[in-house]
Amino acid sequence: MFTGLIQSLGTIQAIQTQGDGARFRIDCPDLAPDQWETGASVAVAGCCLTALDIDANGFSADLSGESLAKTTHGRRQVGDALNLELALQVGDHLGGHYVTGHVDGVAEVLAIQALDAGNHRLDIKVPTGFERFVAPKGSVTLDGVSLTINEVVDQVEQGTYFSVNIIPHTWAVTTLGFLSVGDGLNFEIDLLARYLDRLMAPSQQKASTQ
Fold first, then answer.
1. Helices (H), the chain
2. Non-local CB neighbours of 198 within 8 Å, separated by 6+ positions
3. Beta strands of 19-126 (E only): which ranges?
4. Could you give the CA distance from residue 189 to residue 104 in angstroms, rounded to a whole number?
5. Domain-by-domain residue ranges, the chain?
6. Does the domain made of 8-86 have the CATH classification 2.40.30.20?
7. What distance in Å separates the CA atoms of residue 183 and residue 111, rounded to the nearest whole number?
8. CATH code for 105-198?
């Protein structure tokens, strides 16, 4: 479990193909990885991965073919920066929202607008099938960053998209500041929305048959 508050940026130093999957080598000396235990969970751009081959400079992580296909990690290159967060521990402050690290799909950046005082607005297209999970003032995770949805717009041509505002600090210390229009982002819906949808499904099915 994570919070969506990024602790550091890591850098991909190597990508090794393993069948239909891959192994990433990620450098992140600022997070003191030599103090971790093998098998530690790390959110890498919002995707929960298992830390292996840990040393003072970083760690390796294996990704399955499914992970590469369903997240932006299938497009990664050596030198790419990645948002990193260590798993939440009992007693830690929860400053964002509960994030599982289980990516639901890849969202698309539709627009980037510079606002006053160094703030930015992003318009993000929702992956198909997840439109009902986004709501104004609800939470969403993009590349591991916990964000609050400002507005949700349904359009025939573009489909459903939502907007989020990024403060200067987040813009500077996460990979969101590197984005361009058309880029993909690992997208995770709010855990609460996921369970509410599951709980409401029987009632909705019953109503549709009456």
1. 65-70, 168-173, 191-209
2. none
3. 21-27, 41-44, 47-50, 58-63, 81-86, 105-114, 120-125
4. 7
5. 8-86, 105-198
6. yes
7. 10
8. 2.40.30.20
Handedness of CA 27, 71, 172, 86 (dihedral sign): negative
- When comparing pLDDT for 64 and 194, which is higher? 64
Mean pLDDT of 30-45: 96
**What pTM did the predictor assign?**
0.90
> Do the domains at 8-86 and 105-198 have one common CATH topology?
yes
Q: Is the pLDDT of residue 156 over 80?
A: no
The average confidence (pLDDT) of the chain is 91
In whole angstroms, give the CA distance from residue 42 to residue 50.
Answer: 6
Which pLDDT band, with edges at 50, 70 and 90, does 89 fall under? confident
- All residues at 6 or more sequence positions from 42 whose CB lies less than 8 Å from its CB, including other chains: 48, 49, 50, 51, 59, 61, 84, 85, 86, 87
pLDDT at 94 over 80: no
d(CA 22, CA 129): 28
pLDDT in the model for residue 97: 81
Q: What is the CB neighbour count within 10 angstroms for residue 130?
A: 18
Q: For residues 118 and 170, what is the distance between their CA atoms, to the nearest angstrom?
A: 11
Q: Which two tokens stand for residue 54?
A: 């840990």
